[in-house]
Amino acid sequence: MPSTRSSFRARRSSQRGFALILALVLAILYFALIELLMIDASRELGEARRFRSRIIALTLAENGAELAAKQIVIVTETEADADEENAQGTMTGEMRKTPTATGVSQFTIVGEGESKGNEAIRAKVTLNGHIEGTQIKIVFAQHTQ
Q1: Quick count: other Cβ atoms within 10 Å of Cβ 99?
Q2: 114 touches 121 (CB < 8 A)
Q3: Domain extent for 67
Q4: Among 72, 66, 128, which residue's Cα sits nearest to residue 92?
Q5: Contact 56, 120 (CB under 8 A)
Q6: How far apart are CA 58 and CA 16, in angstroms?
Q7: CA distance 126 to 129
Q8: What angle do CA 96, 93, 141 make, to 5 degrees?
Q9: pLDDT digits over 109-142, tens only?
Q10: How many domains, in total, are found in the chain?
């Protein structure tokens, strides 16, 4: 007949093994969860960078169009170009105006912007319209990326 001491030791030893296995499984699950959170955070950071670059590129394109448009009221000018660069990126603008005999001038303004950084994105703004006397009317605006 086995002694009660040896069966107690065997049971206690198996409980220790079970606790060790359980601790290892929980540690592996914990580290897997941490890794999933890091992957998700990295993906979110990439999306935030791309969004920021798109907004900056659109803003630069609009600023380029404004730089070119400030020459629109000068009657003798039929073309105006503008190029600027800052810490956020580069902007360019072109204005083409076609005067007519009726006094109404058609114009097209194109502004382009490119953001700097890890996610360099380009954007373009096109404005079409006409000038009647001193009134400037934009008929069509298009934003593209």
Answers
A1: 14
A2: yes
A3: 4-144
A4: 66
A5: no
A6: 63
A7: 10
A8: 70
A9: 999 999 998 888 999 999 999 888 778 889 999 9
A10: 1
Tokens 């005067």 locate to: 99
CB neighbours of residue 112 within 10 Å: 21
Assigned token pair, 74: 């000068």
* Alpha-carbon dihedral sign for residues 84, 86, 90, 95: negative
Amino acid in position 78: T
pLDDT digits (tens, 9 = 90+) for 9-35: 556 666 777 888 999 999 999 999 999
Q: Is the pTM of this model over 0.70?
A: yes
The amino acid at residue 88 is Q
d(CA 145, CA 142): 10
* Calpha distance 115→93 (Å, rounded): 15
Share of the chain above pLDDT 90, in %: 50
**pLDDT tens across 34-51, in order?**
999 999 999 999 999 999
Beta-bridged to residue 98, according to DSSP, are 106
